[in-house]
Write a structure and sequence with these properties.
The chain has helices at about 40-60, 70-80, 85-90, 90-100, 105-120, 125, 130-145, 170-180, 195-205, 215, 240-260, 285-290, 315-330, 370-375, 375-390, 405-425, 440-445, 450-455, 460-470, 490-505, 520-525, 535-545, 555-565, 565-575; strands at about 5, 10, 15-20, 165, 185, 205-210, 225, 230-235, 275-280, 300, 335-340, 395-400, 435-440, 455-460, 510, 530-535. By secondary structure, it is of the alpha/beta class. Among the domains are: about 5-25 and about 150-240, Glucose Oxidase, domain 1 (3-Layer(bba) Sandwich), CATH 3.50.30; about 35-145, Enzyme I, Chain A, domain 2 (Orthogonal Bundle), CATH 1.10.274. The strands form 2 sheets. The chain has an 8-stranded mixed beta sheet with strand order 1-8-7-3-4-5-6-2. A hairpin with a 4-residue loop joins β7 and β8. The model is unreliable at about 345-350 and about 355-360 (pLDDT under 50).
Length: about 575
């Protein structure tokens, strides 16, 4: 009998093959006390585990083919950097000394403290960084407990062409298994913004997450089909179904192969309307992927990584050197740098001092521009570095989570003051550097016309805009079914923002996940969007849709869409309409 399971699609493609279930051993950490005379041996045991964990990760990194894009190894490097961080290498030793407890228990206590910080983060992308803490800590714990190496870390061919089913996977797991030739994977946990999901897209592995309780219904050697476009897993399909997906798989492969030809093609609709396609990047190493897909620049460069896994915030010079490296790598392509988007009560170590107890609604608390204006000593070095970097290439500054004009005026005044200081010190910068704001709060979208009069560009952050409009936490399994990009309220806010930009004659981009979902591309074009900033893995697909669309013929559909009363009605309209 065929079993159909539904999860969340994170990487498109179709895979067919036998199942291999990965059961990560449960790590049972128990507390016990040690004598003071045992302190030196216990700390030595902990240090050895850290050293061995580094050795394991370096061995995994060495398995990555030299032809692979550098952003792949960056995920492993992130975990290696965490193994250099005092939060994991020194804090547990302090706990061992103070509490005279075993190393495993000390590490667990420190892990719990770190994860609680990430759990309070409102930004879904950043909150899923807790997974990285778990992955690194679990690797150390397995070494401390002398558990056998995980089966998939033993270099053999037993995983070739297999479909992996697991509770969760680390980035290291994913890289290794791709090297061993897996066909696809599905996990019971995880989200679309986890490092593993991002890595799957970069590696081109069909992948699904959030396949809850899958291992209750699937066993080793079952035949499976993974449809990464729909998030569907079929177990033991009948012959007719398998033949259908085999044909579909060939079509998908031909489709992705044809996309590569679009790299250097212009992004222009059938009726001659030019659209700007930019890329979202997180790490300096990501610039290779920007050029590989022919992006016209970077529409969102996240800077939070500069503040993570450290005790003090980065100084101006570190900011400056980081931005200069990216500018040089982009070779003249424009770079839009987003200012810090973290919160004081949910921060990582390098984001400043604590300003109070953890709040029950961190998404509604002191975060992003609110935090930066509250703690200007955190904000000024970043802004000054951005201004200095603008002398070396096309740079734009983008401010997240603006909600009122007072915040905007404060930011603009701070930038003017910093420009005056640079003038006084005879330090070069672009006097015409563009300053923009992210529209990700309903209040900002409704008042977009006011922001558009004072700013040089706007960028719609749909991830938060949808979350705040629908009053739901999109990473909460109990309510995230309400997260609906097609809700009429969301589409009206998007259109309001685009219209405000048109009236003020300033560009409006979209840098949220919605911009990279091809099922929404024609809808966004119809609403007037002319600048998309997407994950590099999605860029060529979005370009194809744009190039195959006659935008002038979308007006009739838009009238129906904007008069619809529900997201389901709008979805049906989009599915029924075939536009060329």
């Amino acid at each position: 009998m065929t079993i159909s399971l539904q999860g969340v699609s994170v990487s498109r493609g179709i895979a067919i093959g036998p199942v291999h279930i990965i059961q990560h051993d449960q790590i049972d950490v128990r507390e016990y006390n040690i004598e003071r005379t045992q302190l030196e041996d216990e700390i030595s045991r902990f240090n050895d585990a850290i050293a061995n964990a580094r050795q394991q990760l370096r061995a995994i990194r060495d398995h990555i083919p030299s032809s692979t894009s550098v952003d792949i190894s960056a995920f492993i490097d992130t975990h290696l950097l965490m193994l250099e961080d005092i939060a994991l290498t020194e804090e547990p030793k302090r706990i061992i000394k103070e509490q005279l407890c075993n190393a495993e228990w000390a590490l667990k206590l420190q892990r719990d403290a770190l994860v609680s910080v990430f759990d309070e983060m409102a930004d879904a992308y950043l909150s899923t960084r807790r997974d990285d803490v778990d992955h690194v800590v679990n690797r150390i714990l397995r070494l401390l407990l002398k558990q056998k190496p995980l089966l998939h870390e033993v270099p053999e061919d037993h995983l070739k062409n297999k479909i992996i089913i697991a509770g969760d996977l680390t980035p290291a797991d994913t890289v290794l298994m791709q090297h061993y030739g897996i066909a696809a994977f599905a996990t019971e946990f995880g989200g679309p913004t986890s490092h593993t999901a991002i890595l799957a897209r970069s590696l081109g592995i069909p992948a699904i997450v959030g396949l809850h309780n899958a291992r209750r219904f699937i066993k080793n050697s079952d035949q499976a089909i993974i449809d990464g476009s729909t998030g569907t897993v079929l177990i033991n399909p009948d012959k007719k179904t398998q033949l259908f997906y085999e044909k579909k798989q060939k079509e998908v492969k031909r489709y992705y192969s044809s996309l590569k030809k679009l790299k250097n093609a212009p992004t222009e609709s059938i009726d001659g309307i030019t659209v700007e396609l930019m890329a979202n990047i997180e790490l300096p190493k990501d610039f290779d992927t920007v050029r590989n897909v022919g992006a016209k620049g970077v529409g969102l460069y996240r800077t939070e990584f500069l503040y993570m896994n450290r005790e003090s915030p980065p100084e101006e010079e570190e900011h400056f050197e980081t931005y200069i490296a990216v500018i040089k790598a982009l070779r003249g392509l424009p770079l839009t740098i987003r200012t810090l988007d973290l919160g004081a009560d949910k921060q990582v170590d390098g984001a400043g001092k604590q300003t109070g107890s953890v709040k029950s609604n961190p998404a509604l608390g002191l975060r992003a521009v609110r935090l930066c204006l509250r703690e200007p000593e955190l904000f000024r070095p970043q802004l000054r570095a951005m201004l200095r970097a603008s002398a070396h290439g096309p740079v734009r500054i983008m401010v997240p989570m603006l909600t009122n004009t007072q915040e905007m005026q404060q930011v603009l005044q701070m930038i003017d003051d910093l420009k005056a200081g640079l003038d006084a010190d005879s330090i070069a910068y672009d006097p015409d550097i563009q300053i923009g704001g992210m529209i990700e709060v309903p209040a900002a979208a409704i008042c977009a016309d006011i922001f558009a009069k004072k700013l040089d560009f706007l960028s719609i952050g749909t991830n938060d805009l949808i979350q705040y409009t629908m009053a739901i936490d999109r990473v909460n399994d109990e309510v995230n079914y309400l997260y609906d990009p097609l809700h009429p309220a969301v589409l009206r806010l998007i259109q309001t923002t685009i219209k405000a930009g048109e009236k003020a004659k300033i560009p409006v981009a979209m840098c949220g996940e919605m911009a990279g979902e091809i099922e929404y591309t024609q809808l966004l074009l119809g609403l007037g969007l002319r600048e998309f900033s997407v994950h590099p893995a999605s860029l060529l697909e979005v370009k194809k849709i744009i190039n195959d669309t006659n935008i002038s013929k979308l007006s009739k559909l838009m009238k129906k869409v904007l008069n619809a009363s529900s997201g389901n009605e709008i979805k049906a309209l989009l599915q029924q309409t075939q536009l060329k």
